[in-house]
């Protein structure tokens, strides 16, 4: 990871970054799953790192994974959701 970061100045990591990012993705997926399975009516995930700077195969900023796109893909592929709407409020 350290070697990768040398050529990518737009990525900031510490030794625990990947583990924390995985926990965040898991939490967002759990939120989507619980919502789709109607265990509660709605949900809102306030997570760090947010994930909105990362791309499919390119982490950037403080973001290793794009949590929203991963959760949307999970909903479509694993939970049989037909449509996903993503709204970013700035």
Describe this structure as you would to a colleague:
The protein is mainly alpha-helical and 90 residues long. It has one domain (2-78). The protein has 3 helices and no strands. It has helices at 2-6, 17-36, 67-78. The protein is elongated and about 45 Å long.
Describe the SSE topology.
Blueprint: H1 2-6, H2 17-36, H3 67-78
Protein name: Hist_deacetyl domain-containing protein
GO biological process, one term: epigenetic regulation of gene expression
GO cellular component, one term: histone deacetylase complex
What descriptors fit this protein?
90 residues; mainly alpha; elongated
Using the CA coordinates, give the radius of gyration: 14 Å
User: Residue-averaged pLDDT, rounded?
Assistant: 83
Number of domains: 1
SSE pattern: HHH
* Helical segment count: 3
Determine the N-to-C terminus distance: 31 Å
